Amino acid sequence: MDLLEREAVLRDLTGHLQVAVGGLGRMALVRGEAGVGKTSVVRRLAQLADPRVRVLVGACDPLATPRPMGPLMDLAPRLGRAVRTALTGALAGTCRSDEVFDCLLADLSGYPSLLVVEDVHWADEATMDLLLYLARRLPSVPALVVATYRDDEIGRNHPLTPLLGTLAGYPWVHRHDLAPLSRRAVAQLATGHAVDAEQLYHVSAGNPFIATEILAAPAETIPATVREAVAGRLAGLSAAARMVVDVLAVLGHRVSPPLLAAVLPDPEEALQEAVACGILRTNGQVSEFRHELVRQTVLEAVPAAYRLRVHRQVLTAMRSGPVAADDLALLADHAEAARDPAAVLEYAPEAAVHAAALGAHREAAAQYVRALRYADRLPPDQHTCLLEGHSQACLLASRLEEGIASRRMAVELRRAVGDRLCEGEDLRWLSCWLWPAGRTAEARQTGLDAVRVLEGLRPGRELGRAYLNLCQLSCYEHEAVAVTSAYAEKAIALGERFGDAGVVVQARFHAAAARMLCEGGGWEDCEQAVSGAMAQDLPVDAGFLALIMCWFAALQRDGDRSAAAVSRAEAYCLDRDLLFYLLCTRAWGSWGLLNRGLWGQAADCAQKVLCHPSSPPVVQALALTVLALVRARQGKAQVRPLLEQAAGLVDADCLLGTGLGWEARVEAAWLAGDHERVRAEARKGLVALAGRTHPWLSGPLACWIRRAGGVPPQVPAAEPYALELAGDWAGAAARWDALGCPYEAALARLAGDAPALHQALAAFEALGARPAVARTRAVMRTRGVRLVRRGPRAATRANPYGLTNRELDVLKLLDEGLSNAEIAARLYIAPKTAGHHVGSVLAKLGVHTRHEAARKLHHSERR
Question: Does the global pTM surpass 0.70?
Answer without folding.
Answer: no
